[in-house]
Amino acid sequence: xxxxxxxxxxxxxxxxxxxxxxxxxxxxxxxxxxxxxxxxxxxxxxxxxxxxxxxxxxxxxxxxxxxxxxxxxxxxxxxxxxxxxxxxxxxxxxxxxxxxxxxxxxxxxxxxxxxxxxxxxxxxxxxxxxxxxxxxxxxxxxxxxxxxxxxxxxxxxxxxxxxxxxxxxxxxxxxxxxxxxxxxxxxxxxxxxxxxxxxxxxxxxxxxxxxxxxxxxxxxxxxxxxxxxxxxxxxxxxxxxxxxxxxxxxxxxxxxxxxxxxxxxxxxxxxxxxxxxxxxxxxxxxxxxxxxxxxxxxxxxxxxxxxxxxxxxxxxxxxxxxxxxxxxxxxxxxxxxxxxxxxxxxxxxxxxxxxxxxxxxxxxxxxxxxxxxxxxxxxxxxxxxxxxxxxxxxxxxxxxxxxxxxxxxxxxxxxxxxxxxxxxxxxxxxxxxxxxxxxxxxxxxxxxxxxxxxxxxxxxxxxxxxxxxxxxxxxxxxxxxxxxxxxxxxxxxxxxxxxxxxxxxxxxxxxxxxxxxxxxxxxxxxxxxxxxxxxxxxxxxxxxxxxxxxxxxxxxxxxxxxxxxxxxxxxxxxxxxxxxxxxxxxxxxxxxxxxxxxxxxxxxxxxxxxxxxxxxxxxxxxxxxxxxxxxxxxxxxxxxxxxxxxxxxxxxxxxxxxxxxxxxxxxxxxxxxxxxxxxxxxxxxxxxxxxxxxxxxxxxxxxxxxxxxxxxx
Length: 713
Description:
Helix content: under 10%
Number of strands: 44
């Protein structure tokens, strides 16, 4: 029968000094024997609980006079802080903070194992191992050589600083030495932030040759850190990346930048991408952003995110249930071929107040919006040159003040018909400078009224399947007078299921949809009992007269618009298929987008196709026809293969392609990829890139361990 000897254990497991109540210990064993007045023998399933530590052993002998424990194994000592010691024999002090463990292993965070013939516990802080081996890999009896290991003359684990120190360390892969480091310091697995070298990576490109990146992380406190990454290549590229992060009580900032020299461009090159967000009094939020780059091709050359324009801004916003307030300042930098930054509205400032109201004399819901806006070009020419070929004066500056009022009210009519009345009124005052054609002050007044009817038919089958069929009709009237101001913020118009029944399909303020029109549509949804669903909508716009407002590529030109169709299929097996298409009466397609996403068994697949007809007014001289594909296949628990491509059917070639493989097990993570990028820009050459990164798991790595391998008998 197991005995609990709490009172005696208090005396035998504590130092000779007086004990506090929280220092009381508990000893549990199958058998307890006392020899004389100073020696306690505990045998069989012995457990000792003391100050968060837990010791399990076959037998324990405590000598009160020496305040020491003689322990026989198998021994397990859990310090309660993520470290577990396993041993065959041990001699420890009464508080288990000092002593020697023989044939021992130290397991940190259930991941990293440190093994040695002898382990010393020193105070309540250090664990010292003599000649030892460190690895987080599984070790099998049939093959005791781990995938990787670090052998060292001495290993010291500092539990307070959570650091591991190696002396005369040797890295081995499958038992073969590949690197020697006289002294090495690494964080233990419990550390999430610690100064030191991070995971290196190798990158090979046709422009720079083979290079290596070795990041060094500086933990500058609990709320800030700095990462410096030198990048050296065989083709004389020298670059230093810097990443700085800091958190505040009211927000955060993040700074990314680099300074580089290479053989592609003379002189120093670099970039800065910085963001920040702060909470202000009275529920306001301040967002900051700084984007700048030395030249148009830098981001593409160094494999950064693809952008054709950079944005620096400061914005303060407040969002409440019935209110939105925003004020912002933006500066744009163009990276497009043939588009100088000086000829685009690169300096923009605006302020917006939007309020929603319910009830009132008309009932329903209304909205009131005020906005002031300014867009400035740095050029001072009041005419268009051949530099950008956009037919806009290179120096045009615009200031605008706008007010908009909208209202709608819903009704339930006989036979279940849902009716809606709606209206919108907008007034704008413009001041245009440095434009010989439009310079002056203009006033615009636009509006529209409409009614809408929806008649949903619902059917619920006995097997649980439900269906909804909704015919929709909307009548809208707006004045037919044309606007006298140039259109800069509404040049691209989308026609899809989201605005089929909108009063105004222009996204900005400079243009307003005009004339009398009727929008018709049919919506159908089916949700099957088995879990799959299908939804579609078909619609079209009919106009009283063609006012020549829209381009052919928008699908809205003429008295009758193109047919707008959209459908989505969601399968219970993880397949989602979506399509949007605009086509005319002869079935000639104006725009089409197809997207498929699936995750079935071992496969993940994402594919899309987009087609847009050519339109010079939208700065697109050729049709756009591209397919994007990305997918992965899980070969087994450890290996996964990836592939992606973007194919341009107009040019009849791939725009980009990449293949890669990922390996992950309990102790190692490997990422390998090969990519080829073809650029349509005249200033960027096609490039080929190869990358490799290897992460030894168990030393505070960000990568999550993969599945543990299976030992073969």
